[in-house]
Every structure is written in structure tokens, then in C-alpha cells.
Task: inverse folding
């Protein structure tokens, strides 16, 4: 074999391989240059969702700073099962709120508030309905007007004066809505409310007498100068123990005991043989009442003598204001059943 033959063959094979590679590259370029075959199928129509109707915007009334003031003042003397009925109407106490604004009777004053209720038969939606009307009483005073509660009812033989805390009640600072995100200790409150921490869920565990005390509660206010303006009562409440008991009132200045007893016999509330025992019972009640009046006068006189001029001035400036809800189209008409503050059932001693 001649030299170089093998080399030539190898060169030829390399040329053929190079040509084949070049041809493959050209074919690949042609494939890239040719347009891709288009899909002849019609595109699927997209499902169009029905447009939701735009919801009407909701409007919320801005909360007023003192809006819940009437609700948080404990309604003294209200039966527990009647508490929920106080909120069946949207009562409007904007008059109470306005009283704290500039120019109002409570503006800039230190005020103590408590609630109470007045059950009244009032017209509502074409019929007369018995409704517990919420009422708020404001006491303007530089110090708490009382730390006691009076327990009084026809069924109880005697009026009872007890510390507020015994009934889980106390004066607590009221924090307006706009300030409730602040620390309480930094607030200098001028409004105090009578609060009660007795839980309603625990009522079933209370004895009946204890439970009834809440219903017979009345605000108690010590007024050392009241004796100079008003005469003390000469009337005693009588509950003579019979079946049924004889319940009446006797005025030792206006009633004559013999005649009073004879009238009860005529009404068959007493029998003839019970007259003497009944008269002795009444005489004892009168002696107790006169003694209590005498002791009260002496205690009042001593308290005034020992009182500082600053305290005397504070008692003299103490003022009471009563607020009924404002009439609105959504609340019953209470215009004809309002009771004046001076006729209200507080206990002043």
C-alpha cells in the first residue's frame, strides 16, 4: 500500500462526515424558518360571570363621647328581672350629655350619677303599655354625696341604713368613650357613677331576703341642714302580726288611737278582743319613732357644730338634677307621667 492512502481515506471519511453534519444543520435551520402549523380548532369561549350588584354602603352613626352614660349608672331599686326591659327601646339621653357641654348646668362640675326606674302605664303604638322608664339623677357635689343605701318597703318593719359596699355598690369614675384607650390612672375624672358588682349569674345562689334587698334599695343622702326647712314625720308604719297582718300608717298628731282602732274593728281587720294588744303595739312604735327623731336631731346638731366651714359650704352648694329620656319617634310618650324631683323617693336624713 502506498503511503498516504490511509490518510486520504480518513480525509474522505471526515469530509463526508462534515458534509453530513452541514446538511443536518441546514435541515434544522429550515425547520426553524418554516412557520408552525396553526391549530384549526375554534377557541373555547370563556364563561362570563354575571356582575354582582354593588352593595349599598352602610352608614354608622358616630358614637357620642357620653352616649352610654345612662346605661352604666346602676338603676337602684329595680327588680333584677326587669333590667333587660330597660333596653328594649333606644332611649335618648342627649339632654344629659348636653348638660356637660359648655353652658350646661353640669359643665365643669364634679358630678355623681345614679339610675332608677319608674314603671308607668303609657301609650305606645295605639295601646297602653306598662313600661319601666329609665331615669338618671345627677348630684353636684365636691365629695361623694353618700356611702350608704337605705332599704325600705311596706313589708319591712323598719327602715334599714347600710353601707353601700355591703350591697356591692360604690361610686366609680366614668370614662368617656373617647378616652377609653388611655390609662385610667392618668385621667382626672369629674363624673362618677354608682356601680354594682353583683353578678346576675350568681343571683340564684342568694337567699330570698338578700335578693329582695336590691329591689328595696333607695339612695340615702345625709342632709344635716334639712331639719331647719322640713318638719320630721309624725307618722309610723304599722305591721301588726296577724294572719293576714294589719298593715297601716298611724300619725300620732293627726290620729286618735281609740278611734283609729275602732275603725279597724269595723273594717274587720281586727277583732274586739285584739284591740288592747293592738293599741299597745302602736304606742310602742310611736315611742320608738319619737326616740329616733330626738336622737337624729341631737346627732344633726352635734354634726353641724363639729363641721368645718368648707364642709358646710359644700353641703349648701349640693344640687340634685333629674333627667328623663328625650322624646323620639321610636320611644313611648312619657310626657304626662314625669315625677318632680322633690316628690321622688329618696331617703334624706
Result:
Amino acid at each position: 500500500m502506498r503511503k498516504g492512502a490511509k490518510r486520504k481515506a480518513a480525509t474522505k471519511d471526515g469530509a463526508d462526515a462534515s458534509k453530513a453534519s452541514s446538511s443536518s444543520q441546514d435541515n434544522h435551520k429550515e425547520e426553524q424558518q418554516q412557520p408552525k402549523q396553526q391549530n384549526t380548532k375554534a377557541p373555547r369561549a370563556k364563561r362570563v360571570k354575571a356582575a354582582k350588584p354593588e352593595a349599598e354602603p352602610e352608614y354608622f352613626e358616630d358614637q357620642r363621647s357620653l352616649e352610654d352614660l345612662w346605661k352604666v349608672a346602676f338603676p337602684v331599686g329595680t327588680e333584677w328581672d326587669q333590667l333587660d326591659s330597660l333596653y328594649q327601646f333606644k332611649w335618648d339621653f342627649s339632654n344629659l350629655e348636653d348638660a356637660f357641654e359648655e353652658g350646661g348646668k353640669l359643665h365643669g362640675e364634679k358630678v355623681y350619677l345614679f339610675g332608677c326606674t319608674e314603671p308607668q302605664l303609657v301609650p305606645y303604638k295605639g295601646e297602653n303599655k306598662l313600661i319601666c322608664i329609665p331615669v338618671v339623677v345627677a348630684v353636684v357635689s365636691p365629695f361623694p354625696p353618700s356611702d350608704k343605701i337605705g332599704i325600705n318597703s311596706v313589708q319591712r318593719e323598719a327602715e334599714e341604713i347600710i353601707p353601700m359596699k355591703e350591697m356591692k355598690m360604690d361610686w366609680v369614675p366614668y370614662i368617656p368613650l373617647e378616652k377609653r384607650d388611655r390609662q385610667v390612672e392618668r385621667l382626672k375624672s369629674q363624673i362618677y357613677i354608682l356601680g354594682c358588682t353583683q353578678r346576675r349569674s350568681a343571683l340564684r345562689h342568694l337567699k330570698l331576703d338578700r335578693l329582695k334587698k336590691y329591689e328595696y334599695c333607695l339612695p340615702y343622702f345625709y342632709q344635716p341642714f334639712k331639719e331647719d326647712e322640713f318638719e320630721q314625720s309624725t307618722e309610723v308604719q304599722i305591721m301588726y302580726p296577724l294572719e293576714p297582718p294589719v298593715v297601716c300608717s298611724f300619725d300620732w298628731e293627726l290620729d286618735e288611737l281609740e278611734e283609729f282602732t275602732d275603725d279597724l274593728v269595723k273594717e274587720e281587720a281586727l277583732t274586739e278582743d285584739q284591740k288592747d294588744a293592738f293599741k299597745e303595739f302602736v304606742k310602742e312604735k310611736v315611742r320608738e319613732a319619737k326616740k329616733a327623731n330626738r336622737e337624729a336631731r341631737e346627732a344633726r346638731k352635734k354634726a353641724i357644730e363639729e363641721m368645718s366651714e368648707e364642709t358646710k359650704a359644700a353641703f349648701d352648694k349640693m344640687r340634685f338634677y333629674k333627667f328623663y329620656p328625650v322624646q323620639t319617634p321610636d320611644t313611648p310618650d312619657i310626657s304626662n307621667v314625669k315625677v318632680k324631683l322633690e316628690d321622688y323617693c329618696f331617703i334624706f336624713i
